[in-house]
Amino acid sequence: MTPNLLPEPPTNDSAREHQKPATDALARRILGKCADGDIRAALRLLTSDDTVAEPDAEVIAEIMLKHPAAPKDELLPPPPAPSDPGPLTVTPEEVEAAINSMPPGSSAGLDGIRPLHLRQLISREAAESGRRLLHSLTALTNLVLAVKFVTNESFGNFEYLRIIRLFRYKGVVKQWAFNGEKEGNIKGKIEFIQESPYTITNTETDLTGLDGAAGGYHVHLVPVQLKDEFPCHNIAIGGHFNPYGINPRASPPPGHGSSDQYESGDLSGKYGELTGRSEVQRVSNDTNLQLFGPDTILGRSVVIHRAADQSRWMCGNILWGYSPAEARQVTAIASFHHPHGYAWGYIRFSQLVYHTGGRSETVIELNLRHPGSNDRNVTSGHNWAIFVNPVGHDAAVKFFTSRCTAGGYRWNPDFIHLANPNAHDFYNEQCSPETPLRCEIGDLSGRLGTIDLGQKRVVMSDPNLPLDGDFWHSAIGKSVIIFEANGGSNRFACANIEPDYDIIKRVSIRKLPKFVASQFIDTVRKVMQAPEWFVFIDEQETLEINFGRCVQFTVHFRGPKAQKLQYDFDRLFSFGSVDGPAIFIPGYFNSARKNSVPYELCGALDPEDADKYIENIQGGSFEFPDFLNFSSGQHVLPSLLLSLAAAVLCRLLV
């Protein structure tokens, strides 16, 4: 028989004696975690088979290999100068609040110091030494936030990277447009707030004047255009915003499911309908509604439906919400309005620029088609990009070899250089909507995909398109180049990116026989040589006055020449004509252009102005309104004085 060389197994008594010290040590560790309030760690120790390694030479050598000592000649950079507003900084009070906010049982760092230790070291019991430690921790935190790093091996030069605050995004709907007849007196707003791309969105609804007529409400694809008589129609703003392709027929009844079971834009499905309510104040949390990223709702619209027939009742745009104390909004436009050009429409850009130096994503609205009022052609797969220089008359050159050549080359201020410039295949593999930071800033199709001409309007969001800064780092002042369809390489159409201002003016026009508002504003546009997105009237603000003899309009002048458009509009109706077009188009001259319009200003006062003039008369400080224009030496028509006297008399009698 082969002898048994293994040692005899210990008896039950000897085994218990051997395990007792280890069990006592484990119990002490578990009790220590419980004392810290870290129940999760206590349970993990209780159920784990892991043990602490013996402190022999081999274990210590392995630990030293993983955590080497700091080099002796290491030099820390000096802290940022107090006058440098660039990096984000914190105060001792903020550092103290952060330390106190850490949960019990938080783990220690490599030096064994835990948040609990820091909390005790900076407490009031620590007196002056605690205050000095707190100020030292604050200085260290600000040094880390400045991200000062070594640029050479001599440890003598340092450079800054900037850590900036990530601001929350807020979208606000506060101006409502009726779809056709103006029925109701709705007031209030809907706000969408998201702290970061990884948090839920809070939706705050505060509406009054619904009068029990409202039903469902939804986010729709594109923004409302104030120039439309029916701004909420499907042709105008499209259907529900549904980026994830949810089948609405498979969704639960409104208010009975989770956010992911409804279309992203189905607000009434997720939060409940407005049926039977005269006013609504509610706050909802939404895990399926984004303000950040490609699926943002910013720049789109909200539609409220009638409960009776589910028709579209009113709608409003989701605009940037911000405080002027923290940010300013920058808006730009690339206007394709050359009569001999090869695209017609605009690309509008909108971005928030924060006073701390950060920027929001850029919301982009595209409204492009082929030239000609009756051209319904649709072409797809157009690459598009921002080039470094503005274009001129070359935007309308017939031959591809000379068209849009003034634009130069694609804008690349960050010098993205992935490989040989001629290695296009490698660049196209690396640059995509999923990896936008590997794209040149001017490569819009690389980050956002190709575009179509002749389709409906589109809204998208670009995470890396600055609209402010110097010429080299801002998109404004450059040009947008659209290439041939189906991925073609020839330059097809182009336009310059310029500031987009918005000037609003109230004007009263005397009605002619068979007066039509759309014909009136179209006649004005032709004289000023402006496209419809530069000069338009707000259909919601149109009002008949003076017993139906006049029409009062709210006119919008937009684009880089908004002030010139308003100036020429005033001259057109003050002097009867203008010499030249307000919008200069390089390489184009319209010999058939007229310099006057068959309309004139109305002499009646609107109700708001009448009150002001009555108060001035009663107070003895009456001044004639601007439209009488006494200072210019022109004669005042008797009809104007009679209209003024009649308006004042009627108000005084009332």
Summary of the model, kept short:
This protein is α+β, with helices and mostly antiparallel strands. The chain has 14 helices and 24 strands.
Output the radius of gyration.
34 Å
- The unreliable regions are 1-7, 150-158, 621-644, 646-654
| General form | globular
CATH fold-level topology of the largest domain:
Immunoglobulin-like
Q: Judging by the overall fold, what is the CATH architecture of the largest domain? A: Sandwich
The share of residues in extended strands comes to 15-25%
Strand line-up of the largest beta sheet? 16-19-20-12-13-14-18
Percentage of residues assigned to helices: 10-25%
List the keywords.
single chain; 654 residues; alpha+beta; Immunoglobulin-like; 5 domains; seven-stranded antiparallel beta sheet; five-stranded antiparallel beta sheet; 24 strands; disordered C terminus
Describe this structure in words.
The protein is α+β, with helices and mostly antiparallel strands. The protein folds into five domains: 92-160, no CATH class; 169-320, Immunoglobulin-like; 327-499, Superoxide dismutase, copper/zinc binding domain (Immunoglobulin-like, Sandwich); 501-508 and 517-575, no CATH class; 607-653, no CATH class. It has 14 helices and 24 strands. The chain has helices at 12-36, 39-47, 57-66, 92-100, 115-121, 127-146, 234-237, 267-271, 424-430, 444-448, 517-528, 562-575, 607-619, 638-653, and strands at 148-150, 158-160, 169-173, 177-178, 187-194, 201-208, 214-220, 279-286, 301-306, 312-317, 319-320, 327-336, 344-354, 362-369, 379-382, 384-387, 451-453, 458-462, 479-483, 491-499, 501-510, 535-537, 543-545, 550-559. The strands form six sheets. The protein has a seven-stranded antiparallel beta sheet with strand order 16-19-20-12-13-14-18. A five-stranded antiparallel beta sheet has the order 8-6-5-3-11, with no helix packed on it. Strand 12 and strand 13 form a beta hairpin. Helix 1 (12-36) packs antiparallel against helix 2 and helix 13 (607-619) packs across helix 14. The longest helix is centred in the first third of the chain and has 25 residues, at 12-36. It is globular. Mean pLDDT is 83; it is low at 1-7, 150-158, 621-644 and 646-654.
